[in-house]
Amino acid sequence: SGETVRGDLFIDCSGEQATLIGDTLSVEHEDWSSWQPWDTVLTARSSRPGDLPPYTTVKAHELGWLRQIPLRHGFHNELVFSSAHVSKDQAALAFESALGAAQTGDMSTRTQAAGPRKAFWKANCVALGRAAGEFGTTEISELDMAQRGVMRLATLLPNRDCNPLIAAEF
User: Fold this and answer.
1) Which helix (H) or strand (E) covers residue 91, if one does?
2) Span of 7-16, 51-60, 77-86, 156-165 with lowest mean pLDDT
3) pLDDT exceeds 90 at position 56
4) Residue 137 has what pLDDT?
5) SS3 call for 39
6) Phi-psi category of 44—alpha, beta or left, where left has phi over 0 and alpha has psi -120 to 50?
7) Using CA atoms, how far apart are residues 145 and 116, in angstroms rounded to an integer?
8) Please, are residues 96 and 43 in contact by the beta-carbon 8 Å criterion?
9) What is the pLDDT of residues 118-146, one digit of tens each?
């Protein structure tokens, strides 16, 4: 909204948008695409065929991998792939085929850039979770990264001056 907010320490938990650390403070992303080439995620909901499993599944697929996350009324499904190796249309056909008749909603597409921010702490702003970087969707890395960041920040909680040595240690 353009409103100015004053504070001693800001924690950017705005996800991949990285509103504070990225947009406001211009901390760039490190590009890890040469090591993690998957850059596109197709998502769709599907119905629940029976009992809901208490875990997320990740399966290899010829185009990348499929992730299925159980929800209360069905599943959130993802096909993760590299757009350098397959078109979005080809991936969408393969994804629809993998989901079959269980698909209940429209398919959406998002891109992701693998790699961390070049700094997790700049001035009086600390990035946590996906605001700090994207490390792939095969595991629960976002939650783990956020939890570790909160625990680390709590041990280093600065005073009002946000000493650069504390930021470097973080």
Assistant:
1) helix 88-99
2) 156-165
3) no
4) 59
5) coil
6) beta
7) 11
8) no
9) 999 999 999 998 898 887 655 556 677 77
Residue 86 confidence (pLDDT): 93
Residue 21: exposed, middle, or buried by beta-carbon count in 10 A (0-12, 13-18, 19+)? buried
**Tokens matching residue 1:** 């909204």
Cα 147 to Cα 2, 28, 140, 150, 166, distances in angstroms: 30, 22, 11, 5, 18
Strand partners, 91: none
Q: Is-contact 165 59, C-beta < 8 A? A: no
> Tokens 């350098």 map to which residue?
84
Nearest Cα neighbor of 9 from 130, 127, 149, 117 is 127
Instruction: Indicate the helix (H) or strand (E) that contains 152.
Output: helix 141-156
Q: What is the pTM of this model?
A: 0.70
Q: What token pair was written down for 18?
A: 């990285």
Query: Using CA atoms, how far apart are residues 29 and 10, in angstroms rounded to an integer?
Result: 19
Tokens for 44?
A: 């769709």
